[in-house]
Design brief:
Elements lengths: L6 H17 L4 H5 L8 H4 L6 E6 L3 H11 L4 E7 L3 H10 L4 E3 L2 H6 L5 E4 L6 H10 L3 E4 L6 H13 L4 E3 L7 H14 L2 E11 L16 H5 L1 H11 L6 E10 L6 E10 L4 E7 L1 E13 L2 E6 L10 E7 L7 E5 L5 H14 L4 H28 L2
Parallel strand pairs: 1-2, 1-4, 2-3, 4-5, 5-6, 7-10
Antiparallel strand pairs: 7-11, 8-9, 9-10, 11-12, 12-13, 13-14
Length: 381
C-alpha cells in the first residue's frame, strides 16, 4: 500500500510566514537574516490566528461544513445567519458560535469575522458573495455557481477587494486527488477518456434542489458539478472544449431537472461521458480514466472512507501482475482539508489563482452542458 499526507496542513505555517515577508517586500537575503533581526525562533513559527467564519445558511450542507471546521485548526465558526433569528441562534448554539444574525448583510459588515461561507440556494449566491467581498470578507461559496459570468463577477469582486475565493468542492482537496494529478501521466500515459457517474435519490419534492426557481439546473448543477470538476482535475487542463452533447430529464410535477447525461470532446482528442441523477434506484459515485498506457478506477471519487483515506485501482498495459489498488491516507476529512487550503490562500495570495481557475473552468463546462441540454430539449418539443 502507498500512502501520502496532505501538504497544506504541514506547510501552512511556512506559507503564511512567506506571504508576510513577501507583503513587506523582503527577499531571500532578508529571510536569512531573520535570526539576527530580534525575532525569536518561537515568534518566527508562531501559528497564525484561525480564520473566523460567518455562515450564511443553516441547512444540511452548512451543518456538515460546521462540523468540518471542528477538524480544522485554522478555522473557527464565529457567527451564523439565517432568515429567522431563531434558526441562526440555534445553529450558533449548536456549534458554539458567538453571534447570530437574521441578516446576512449585517453579518458581512461585522468586524468579528474574516470570511463568509455561502450555503444558500444558487439563485442568491452571487449577491451575497459580492457583498461579502466588498465588505472585505473572504468567500467560500457552495457549488454550483449561478453561471460563468456570475462566477467571474464574484471572483473580480474578490480580487478588487484583496480577498480569497474558493468553491466548496471537497474532493479536490483530498490527498488522493493531489497524488493522482501528480502521477496521472505516468500511470495512464496519454489521457483518452474520463467516465464519471454520480447518482442518488431525493424523495422529497419540497427539497430546494427540486425547485426550478432556487436551483435552475437541478441535478445537473448539484450533482453534475462534480462530474465537471472531475474533468477539470483529471484531464489535460490545456485542452479546450470542442463539442458537447447533453440531455436532461425533468420531474413531471415540479419540472425540476432530476437527471442528465452527456458527452464532452476536447481539442487533445480526449473525451468525457457523465451521468448524474436525483432519482436513482441505487446510489453510485465513481470515475474511470483510461489512457494509452493504462487505466485508473476511482471508487467514491467525490468522497473518502471512514478513516479519511481514499483508494484508486491502477491497471497498466505493461503490468503482467494485474491491477494494483493504492490507498491514500489523510489525517482528516476532505472538507476539513478544504478549510485548511482556504486558510493557506488567505495567508498566501499567490495560491488564489489556482482555485479561482478551477471554479471558472468547472462552471464553464457546466454552462456548456446546460446550453446543449436545453437546446436538445427545445428540439424535441
Amino acid at each position: 500500500m502507498k500512502s501520502t499526507t496532505h501538504p497544506s496542513t504541514q506547510s501552512l505555517l511556512k506559507i503564511s510566514r512567506r506571504s508576510v515577508l513577501n507583503t513587506f517586500g523582503l527577499g531571500s537575503a532578508a529571510i536569512l537574516l531573520l535570526g539576527t533581526s530580534g525575532i525569536s525562533a518561537q515568534e518566527e513559527e508562531k501559528e497564525p490566528q484561525p480564520i473566523r467564519w460567518g455562515f450564511v445558511g443553516t441547512g444540511s450542507i452548512a451543518n456538515q461544513m460546521a462540523r468540518a471546521t471542528k477538524d480544522s485548526p485554522n478555522a473557527v465558526l464565529t457567527a451564523s445567519s439565517s432568515r429567522t433569528l431563531e434558526k441562526a441562534e440555534a445553529f450558533a448554539a449548536k456549534y458554539e458560535a458567538s453571534k447570530a444574525f437574521d441578516s446576512w448583510a449585517e453579518m458581512c459588515q461585522w468586524d468579528g469575522i474574516d470570511a463568509i461561507y455561502v450555503a444558500t440556494p444558487t439563485s442568491v449566491k452571487e449577491e451575497i458573495s459580492i457583498a461579502a467581498a466588498k465588505a472585505g470578507k473572504h468567500v467560500l461559496c457552495e457549488k454550483p455557481l449561478p453561471s460563468l459570468p456570475a462566477t467571474q463577477r464574484i471572483i473580480a469582486a474578490c480580487r478588487e477587494n484583496n480577498v480569497a475565493f474558493m468553491d466548496g468542492t471537497h474532493f479536490s482537496h483530498h490527498p488522493r486527488t493531489l497524488q493522482l494529478q501528480k502521477e496521472i501521466d505516468t500511470l495512464v500515459g496519454k489521457r483518452r477518456t474520463l467516465d464519471s457517474i454520480f447518482q442518488f435519490r431525493i424523495g422529497d419534492k419540497t427539497n430546494i434542489r427540486m425547485s426550478t426557481e432556487l436551483e435552475p439546473m437541478g441535478a445537473l448543477g448539484d450533482a453534475g458539478w462534480y462530474n465537471m470538476r472531475a474533468i477539470v482535475d483529471y484531464l489535460d487542463p490545456t485542452a479546450e472544449l470542442q463539442s458537447v452533447s447533453a440531455i436532461i430529464r425533468r420531474e413531471p410535477e415540479t419540472q425540476a431537472v432530476i437527471g442528465s447525461t452527456g458527452l464532452l470532446v476536447f481539442s487533445d482528442g480526449s473525451s468525457s461521458t457523465f451521468s448524474c441523477s436525483f432519482d436513482a434506484g441505487e446510489s453510485r459515485n465513481e470515475a474511470r480514466i483510461v489512457g494509452n498506457q493504462g487505466s485508473l478506477d476511482i471508487p467514491n471519487f467525490l468522497g473518502h472512507d471512514r478513516d479519511n483515506s481514499a483508494s484508486y485501482t491502477h491497471s497498466a498495459r505493461t503490468n503482467k501482475s494485474g491491477k494494483e489498488t493504492v490507498k491514500v491516507e489523510a489525517d482528516r476529512p476532505d472538507a476539513a482539508l478544504m478549510f485548511e487550503d482556504f486558510a493557506a490562500q488567505v495567508h498566501d495570495p499567490s495560491l488564489r489563482k489556482n482555485w479561482e481557475t478551477k471554479s471558472e473552468r468547472t462552471q464553464a463546462l457546466l454552462d456548456a452542458v446546460w446550453a446543449s441540454a436545453l437546446a436538445n430539449e427545445d428540439s424535441q418539443e
